Here is the input.
Amino acid sequence: MSEIRFGTDGWRAVIAEDYTFDNVRALTQATADYLKRHGLSGREIVIGYDTRFLSGSFAAAAAEVMAANGIPVALASAPLPTPALSFAVVERAAGAGIMITASHNPAPWNGFKLKPSYGGAAPPEVTAEIERAVPSVRAAGGVQRLELARAEAAGAVRRVEGQSSYLEAVRSFVDIESIREAGLSVLVDSMYGSAAGWIAAAVGSASATRVTEIHAEHNPAFPGLRAPEPIASNLGEQMTMMATRGYDVGLSTDGDGDRFGLVDEHGRYVTQHRAFALLARYLLVERGERGAIVRSVTMSRMVDRLGDLYGCPVHETPVGFRFLGPRMRETDALLAGEESGGYAFRGHIPERDGVLSALMLLDYLVRTGRTPSELLADLQSELGPHEYDRADVVVRAEEKETIRARVGAWGPERIAGLAVEDVDTLDGHLFRLEGGWWLLMRFSGTEPLLRIYAEMPSPGQVEAAIAAGRALADGGA
Here is the structure.
């Protein structure tokens, strides 16, 4: 039987191969045992799920195990975005939350995210303790189960609605009435995910601002998408509609609603890096807020420049909100973000929220009266050019350590014509170059990929840096 390991954000695996009901139950039992050991079993656990194949059934299986262990369960009555599940954990003062989702992974995958009582991603020390317990749970046949109908009849499992209070909370972060009165034409692509309809519901139907949504129906095959990830390669239909039908802005969310994508009024995709910098500038300039900024090592240094300009410290972490969230809490950060399009905000949960990110972007447009492309021009005028790209190289398991050693031994003097000043191994191998530019090579925590990232002053240098990384991975550098 396969080993269960938490990656960058939760455990993910292919349905019916490693992601099975037996494995979900074993992992849930190990989680229940953890809660008992740490004095949390007397508090409710909230269990939610997305729109993937059998997600509701896997959530029910987890609820049966928790109920059998004497832990009261609040089970979502319908699919939820992950941030709504995290919000419910905090709102209900629960001991923890479980979210059944594989986030942005392709359709054959599902997953299991654990949320501690503060609603963020579980830190590595917690997931490692739970991982270690799974083999003994399996060996002893120690999974406890109470059939769902019986658990509900006994009051051990209660169905809960998670949208109303969450939407009320995220509306409070913006001037929702001004958004409603602005008369914007907004195109949303929810990518068949669990945030379908939530941005529109937040704005409300009795509004001069009109929200049109595509890919809002429930379809766990995610037709036409390689994966429900809000990046340019998956947003072709939205970009075409934006370019031809007169919408003011295009917004998108991923499979579980914790990531955010942006398309401007001309149908051009705005990278996650620029979107994060826009949101940072909105808080710093339009709202006059100050505080630390937390970013992952893979995120653009545009926010570092903003931090310099507006007197805000910037903290760098490894990839994943299991690292960003705790740093955000430690520093009372204004916002945090990672390269995948996940952004979190002070005063909310220390976790990514695609719906709140979308509302804040709308608030930025309304407050300034400017278009997305005009706001991007303002950003570039202030910060100068920052060009970025990422390449993903599929890696066979038997190749991984050879490539890791090759990257570790690489010692170039220059990359893309820029001098190498330092090599950092916080997460992968980060080659820091003159002028603050960089190349990073790291293995994905959720997929069999080597990711190669570069940020440079020109597109040609980005291309050259990534080509050098590819050549190294192939053994040619």
Notes: Residues 21-37 form the longest helix (17 residues). The CA atoms of residues 284 and 310 lie 7 Å apart. The chain has a mean pLDDT of 96. The radius of gyration is 22 Å.
